[in-house]
Specification:
Four Helix Bundle (Hemerythrin (Met), subunit A), mainly alpha, 0% strand, 78% helix, 134 residues
């Protein structure tokens, strides 16, 4: 992946995290009231991170067939820590629920996912930023 492309995607990821940070201390009722905004932020975080990984995996001749697979494969390839890969696979599962409406959205889970998502996607961003120094 070209450095400028990775940098552009990382800047976008950081903007999404700043937008999500606004909801760090939100109450459940605030999450319910703002759920469309939060759902979209979660969706974009998963898509952006997966997109970065899909480019990097493709450079190694590896093709992921889902968002979940891109995180799993990135963990297996040492691009991100395996534990982080597992948590991001869960985020990809939430993405599928939000986008494809596989299940009714549980706003308690959405609310409880804000702080972990902030930490996990920040860790992901740091792992990808370290690639810029290579």
């Amino acid at each position: 992946m070209a450095v400028e492309v990775l940098l552009r995607k990382l800047i976008y990821l950081r903007q999404l995290l700043r937008d999500l940070e606004f909801y760090r201390h939100a109450s459940l009722s605030e999450v319910v009231a703002e759920h469309y905004k939060l759902e979209r932020l979660f969706e974009l975080l998963a898509v952006t991170a997966s997109d970065i990984l899909n480019h990097l995996l493709a450079e190694q001749g590896i093709v992921a067939d889902s968002y979940r697979a891109s995180f799993r494969l990135a963990g297996e390839q040492g691009m991100i820590p395996v534990e982080l890969a597992g948590r991001l696979q869960d985020a990809a599962g939430m993405h599928n629920v939000l986008v494809h409406l596989y299940d009714e959205i549980d706003y308690t889970i959405l609310h409880a996912s804000i702080v972990p998502a902030l930490a996990d996607f920040a860790q992901f961003g740091q792992a990808m930023e370290s690639r810029l120094d290579e």
